Every structure is written in structure tokens, then in C-alpha cells.
Amino acid sequence: MGLLSESEITNAIEGLPGWNFSDNEIWKEFTFDSYMEGIAFVNRLAKEAEAQNHHPDLTVGWCRVRVAFTSHDQGGVTDQCIAMAAIANAITA
């Protein structure tokens, strides 16, 4: 699985509401009604990430969680990053 070009990434995230591309990663900030809802989201996403063996960088704050995907091994965004972004969106749907 190789790195996606910038245009491939841009096209892919057009179908993923809220996702952005910068600094060789795709990222989104999710907001929640309570801190514990954010933590529950992190736990669900962590299980999916472990199953897919593709783990996000997470920043947890008050009622918000920033999720970023990149392939640390390959140094940029891959199809697997896009797939995980879709999973993250589905978890909050």
C-alpha cells in the first residue's frame, strides 16, 4: 500500500465531512456533549484501530477529541488512513 498523492487525498476526504489534510496527515476534531462521551469515542476508535493495525494520533480535551491519521512507516497518507477516517466518522454517526 503506497502513499496517496495530494489530489487523491483531497478527493477522498471530500466524502468525509470535517476531515482536513495538512502536514502529511488527515485530521478532524470531534466534539461531544461531555468529556466522558469523548472518552467513550476514543475507546471505540482504539478497538477499531487495533483490529485494523492502523493507529491514530489522538489529542483529548474538554468535550473534544482531535484524531489524526498518517502512516508513520511511509511518511504520509495511505488508503488505510482514509478507511480509518471513515470508521471514525461512522462511530459518531
Calculate Rg over CA atoms.
13 Å
Would you tell me which CATH topology applies? Answer: Gyrase A, domain 2
Low-confidence stretches: none
Largest sheet: 4 strands, antiparallel
What would the principal axes of the Cα set say about the shape? globular
Instruction: Assess the beta-strand content as a share of residues.
Output: 15-25%
Q: Provide the succession of SSEs.
A: HEEHEEH
Query: Number of helix segments?
Result: 3
Mean pLDDT: 96
Instruction: Please state the structural category.
Output: alpha+beta
Oligomeric assembly: single chain
Q: What percent of the residues sit in helical stretches (DSSP H or I)? A: 40-55%
Strand order of the largest sheet: 1-2-4-3
Cα end-to-end separation: 28 Å
CATH architecture: 2-Layer Sandwich
**Number of DSSP strands?**
4
Q: How many domain modules?
A: 1
CATH superfamily: Transcriptional coactivator/pterin dehydratase
The CATH class label is Alpha Beta
Tell me what you see in this structure:
It is built from three helices and four strands. It has a four-stranded antiparallel sheet. It has helices at residues 6-14, 35-52, 79-92, and strands spanning 20-22, 25-31, 57-61, 64-69. The chain has a single domain (6-92), classed as Transcriptional coactivator/pterin dehydratase (Gyrase A, domain 2), CATH 3.30.1360.20.
